[in-house]
UniProtKB/TrEMBL annotation:
EC number: 2.6.1.85
Pathway: Cofactor biosynthesis; tetrahydrofolate biosynthesis; 4-aminobenzoate from chorismate: step 1/2
Protein name: aminodeoxychorismate synthase
Coiled-coil region(s): none
Lineage, highest ranks first: Eukaryota, Fungi, Dikarya, Ascomycota, Pezizomycotina
Enzyme category, top tier: transferase
Gene3D superfamilies found in the cross-reference section: 3.40.50.880, Anthranilate synthase (3.60.120.10)
Source species of the chain: Phomopsis amygdali
One Pfam family matching this protein: GATase
Catalytic activity: chorismate + L-glutamine = 4-amino-4-deoxychorismate + L-glutamate
Length: 741
């Protein structure tokens, strides 16, 4: 892989008719990759520092109007006063030139006669961005000009008392007896500007390209000496704006060992990242890189079984070990080199065992993004060729993040206010307990050995729509959740209109690049605040708790053996107690081996693979009961709505042949009610089944699923208590007091 990375230039368009010409000049002069945003881009303006961190430099283009008029410059004037840690090299042209000078003490006044399409000789001192330019003729399109307050011709090349930070570099023909300022630089910050139009066909071509090249050379000097891209401002902004982006965050920090060792932030590029969704109710797979229904490709499938070969084909095609000799260079200890990240709903799992849900899908049942760029706890990687510059930058970002401190911000205070005024609806105790009794009746009739019931759904809503819809940051909820309920599998996903905030203790299935598979089902939960560790052991030793775990172990052994064979399946831990921040839980570990594969080889295995084990094991046995198919049919009829993501799985499928997915429990889910023009996302509906304007709740709704396993030894009161314990571990993030934030 090469090391060259083209300049990443942000061009700010003030609705000018020459924008594309300037972009072309940048591309030709410095081979830049140019991104264009307009001055009224509200999303960009709201997250200005965050988005700027993705660029090497900024060019502010020409445009109509007056730099003193906010409507004419949008967010441009904010660029000149950013904190030092966020300052970015800037070249202003025409309006950008006037804005720079106006914001540093100059006056902007009218010319006696507008200069529209006038070609004039530019006088410069041959220094800075004009070094080596020689004689220069340039086109002007302006009716306003900058006055720095020069009164003595002998000091025209020096800053003035009125504008001590602006140093003149070039002048043009006189207006009312005084030359017109044509170029400047800031004396301390990386700001330069020109009044004329370097992109014009009548501006001296070589001179214009030399000016741009000189500017870029000096911009690089600034970046290299100030390491702007390598400071903590990126991650501070990331913490503030993570929820505004489409991302997948899988967090296992602080949980070493077999339960979780690696944290992954998958970056979703809105223009390039492949996103794939599937809905059970229409059996249609949709994929594409650009948002919007009109940009998606669709394929009607016969069943969900056709999805897995498609996923495997994409993963194999992007396996980096296919490059000659590259396999020996890859960090084998890094479990995720890139690949699919997202979730599979409970209902998608039902389709794999031929259980009809009888209800429409409220969200995409399969929702994945193909991640090419990711940030790890220690490692930063990319699947893209010639992407070493990005990798190096992100490596420095992570180093800075480890030492950065979190600060209370206005956004944090808004979050606290919203949470304090939140409303929580829990299921009715009598209704839930009756469902437990109904499950037991099925058990007595011989229909099922173990059944799992959940509540009718718990909604978290607020009475302040304006705060929550516009300002509530789901990533703030994640911070609260993993702080109050730390677990090995924290998650934050914002993808295709669905937001997931979770802290799951349960690994569903993982497999490494050698084909070694592991399940870690949890059955049995005891709240730490109510019981000592000794008492928890006594509870878990009861025949009821042991029966729950044992049945799930045997169920998983069955599922795993169907793929790898009984001789390649074993139980390494049987019913051991594990301690978490708020609960004790009873855990078993079931393992298996697909046909062994050389992890450095690019040749796909010839036998069963991890994705085959995943397909054969859905939905998670710990969330269904046994026999799985009959238990799921019973639960479908008892439960009033789809489970959705709850009881599904969330994680990644690695291009190198590995994978890791957790069970979606201890998790809150919200669905975007509308996007462009107030229309819902394709395949996404409001959680209440209503449009945003017709929801009975004035705010965001977060749905939390919770439940418990029902055996013949269960009591309805005990099952309700267990469900409430699990629910409370998540609700703590929504009911936190100000002091607990």
């Amino acid at each position: 892989m090469g090391s060259y990375s083209p300049p990443r230039i942000l061009f700010i368009d003030a609705f000018d008719s020459f924008t594309n010409n300037v972009v072309g000049l940048l591309e030709k002069s410095i081979q830049a990759e140019v991104t264009v945003v307009r001055i009224n881009d509200q999303k960009f303006a709201a997250s200005l520092e965050f988005f700027l961190s993705a660029f090497d430099a900024v060019v502010i283009g020409p445009g109509p109007g007056n730099p003193a008029n906010p409507e004419d410059v949008g967010f441009i004037n904010r660029l000149w006063s950013l904190p030092d840690t966020s300052t970015v090299p800037i070249l202003g042209i025409c309006l950008g030139h006037q804005s720079l000078c106006l914001n540093h003490g100059a006056k902007v006044t009218r010319l006696s006669e507008p200069r529209h399409g006038i070609v004039s000789k530019i006088t410069h001192n041959g220094t800075d961005i004009f070094e080596g330019v020689g004689e220069l003729s340039a086109t002007q399109y302006h009716s306003l000009h900058v006055d720095l307050g020069h009164s003595n011709p002998d000091i025209f090349w020096s800053p003035t008392t009125a504008c001590p930070s602006i140093c003149p570099l070039a002048w043009g023909p006189e207006d009312n007896g005084n030359p017109v300022l044509m170029g400047v630089r800031h004396t301390e910050k990386p700001f330069w500007s020109v009044q004329f139009h370097p992109e014009s066909i009548c501006t001296h071509k070589e001179g214009a390209q030399r000016i741009v090249s000189n500017w870029w050379w000096r911009a690089q000097e600034w970046n290299n000496s100030h390491t702007r891209d390598f400071n903590g401002s990126f991650m501070n902004a990331l913490r503030l704006h993570l929820d505004e982006l489409e991302v997948v965050l899988l967090d296992s920090q602080g949980h070493k060992g077999e339960r979780g060792t690696f944290s992954i932030l998958g970056m979703v590029d809105p223009k390039e990242t492949l996103k794939v969704t599937y809905k059970v109710d229409d059996r249609c797979i949709r994929w594409g890189t650009n948002p919007g229904a009109n940009n998606l490709s669709k394929l009607q499938l016969d069943s969900i079984d056709q999805i897995w070969p498609l996923f495997q084909k994409v993963l194999d095609a992007h396996d980096p070990r296919g490059y000659d000799g590259f396999g020996q260079m890859l960090p084998m200890e890094v479990p995720f080199w890139g690949g699919f990240a997202g979730y599979i709903s409970y209902e998608a799992g039902l389709e794999t065992i031929q259980v009809d849900t009888h209800r429409p899908s409220e969200i995409p049942d399969v929702n994945f993004a193909f991640i090419q760029r990711s940030i790890g706890l220690v490692y930063v990687q990319s699947l893209r060729d010639d992407d070493s510059a990005w990798v190096a930058e992100m490596g420095q970002v992570i180093q800075r993040l480890e030492g950065s401190e979190a600060h209370t911000t206005g956004e944090d205070l808004i979050l606290r206010h919203a949470i304090r005024h939140a409303q929580v609806r829990k299921p009715e105790e009598t209704e839930y307990r009756q469902k437990v009794l109904d499950c037991q009746e099925f058990l007595r009739s011989g229909d099922s050995t173990l059944s799992k019931t959940l509540s009718s759904g718990q909604d978290h809503e607020t009475n302040s729509r304006s705060i929550l819809v516009e300002r509530l940051r789901p990533v703030g909820l994640l911070t609260l959740l993993i702080t109050g309920n730390p677990a090995p599998f924290g998650s934050f996903l914002h993808l295709n209109g669905v937001t997931v905030v979770g802290s799951s203790p349960e690994r569903f299935l993982s497999w490494d690049r050698t084909g070694h598979c592991q399940f870690r089902p949890i059955k049995g939960t005891v709240k730490k605040s109510d019981f000592t560790r000794k008492e928890a052991y006594e509870i878990f030793g009861s025949s009821k708790e042991q029966a729950e775990n044992l049945m799930i172990v045997d169920l998983i052994r069955h599922d795993l053996s169907s793929v790898v064979g009984a001789n390649n399946t074993w139980v390494s831990k049987l019913m051991v107690v594990e301690e978490y921040a708020t609960v004790y839980q009873l855990v078993s570990v079931i393992e298996g081996q697909c046909i062994p594969n050389n992890p450095t080889s690019s040749k796909p295995p010839t036998g069963p693979r991890g994705l085959d084990v995943l397909r054969a094991s859905l939905p998670p046995g710990s969330m269904t009961g046994a026999p799985k198919k009959r238990s799921c049919e019973i639960l479908r009829d008892l439960e009033p709505r789809n489970r959705g993501i709850y009881s599904g799985v969330l994680g990644y499928l690695d291009v190198g042949g590995g994978g890791d997915l957790s069970v979606v429990i201890r998790t809150a889910v919200s669905v975007d009610t509308a996007t462009d023009g107030g229309k819902p996302h394709e395949g996404v509906h409001n959680e209440a089944g209503l449009g945003a304007d017709h929801s009975p709740f004035a705010g965001d709704i977060y749905r939390i699923g919770a439940g418990g396993a029902v055996t013949i030894q269960s009591t309805d009161e005990g099952e309700f208590t267990e469900m409430d314990v699990k629910l409370s571990s998540v609700l703590g993030a929504f009911t936190a007091t100000e002091g607990g934030m």
